[in-house]
Amino acid sequence: MSKTGSLFALVWLITLGGGIVILGALGALTNDSEISPLFPAYRLAWTGWSLEVAALLVTLYALAVGPFRNWRATVLFFYATCTAFLIPLTNDVFVNKGALPGSNGSDARANAAGAGLVIIFVGNYLQAILAAFHDVEPKAEQMQSNGSKDLA
Asked: How many CA atoms lie within 13 A of 98 on its CB side?
């Protein structure tokens, strides 16, 4: 594997690790409560994460078919920006959730969710930077000509 390929793999592992932390925190926050997961605070959090998943699907589609120059960097920058928007939103929701009935020590889980978001955010930006450096179109080959005699 090339040096660049190893770097891409490392960044994806960082992002994946943040995603696993987030999923664990969401599961713990949902399961440790005596109230319904459809409580308004939960609905806001799950709506935010639904938007994040939708952005991820759009990103993956664009990564698979994107034909334009520097498309990887553009798409990953968009996705990282969506993640940046969700960091304060989700953290506020989860920290406020710590005061809901039946939440047993949810502050630590909210902090874990926030940490996972930050890890994903950093991973996405690193991926965008790497893609910007390595996503360049090959130079068009110049046609060789022997002069005007070839035109006859």
From this structure: 16
Name the DSSP letter for residue 148. G
What dihedral do alpha carbons 55, 60, 65, 71 form, nearest 10°? 70
Contact 33, 102 (CB under 8 A): yes
Structure tokens at 116: 């996972």
d(CA 51, CA 119): 18
71, 58 Cβ separation under 8 angstroms: no
Residues 93-142 have pLDDT tens digits of 666 665 554 455 556 666 666 677 777 777 777 776 676 666 555 555 55
What are the C-alpha distances in Å from 144 to residues 44, 141, 147, 151? 62, 9, 9, 13
